[in-house]
Design a protein that fits this description.
The protein has one domain. The chain is mainly alpha-helical. It has a two-stranded antiparallel sheet with strand order 1-2. Helix 2 packs across helix 3. It contains six helices and two strands, in the order ββαααααα. 52% of the residues lie in helices and 6% in strands. The longest helix has 15 residues.
Length: 97
């Protein structure tokens, strides 16, 4: 979510999410650029936009696209939650974990 004209919240678009510093730190700049090119960059494959807006012809649903989507799912599967160290817990307020 992001602030919308100082009066409410709206959903971030995929490109904004992939450019977020936390996402870039999690995956690396190279991987997020790969995902942006695959999903939402008009100069790239633009799969998300073409499929969601009904632009992709039936022949566009092929093994090359399927392999790339599977690759991104495998990349997402690498994300793991990290435990906070005892030093990180000192900074938190008492009673909150």
């Amino acid at each position: 979510m992001k602030l919308y004209r100082k009066s409410g919240l709206v959903l971030k678009i995929l490109d904004e999410i992939l450019r977020d510093p936390v996402v870039e730190e999690t995956f690396s700049t190279r991987v997020t650029k790969y995902m942006r090119t695959l999903f939402c960059d008009q100069r790239g494959w633009n799969v998300r936009n073409d499929v969601c807006h009904g632009i992709t012809p039936p022949a566009g649903f092929n093994w090359m696209v399927a392999e790339r989507l599977l690759h991104v799912l495998l990349l997402l599967g690498l994300v793991r939650a990290q435990e906070l160290s005892s030093e990180d817990n000192k900074d938190e307020e008492p009673g909150k974990a």
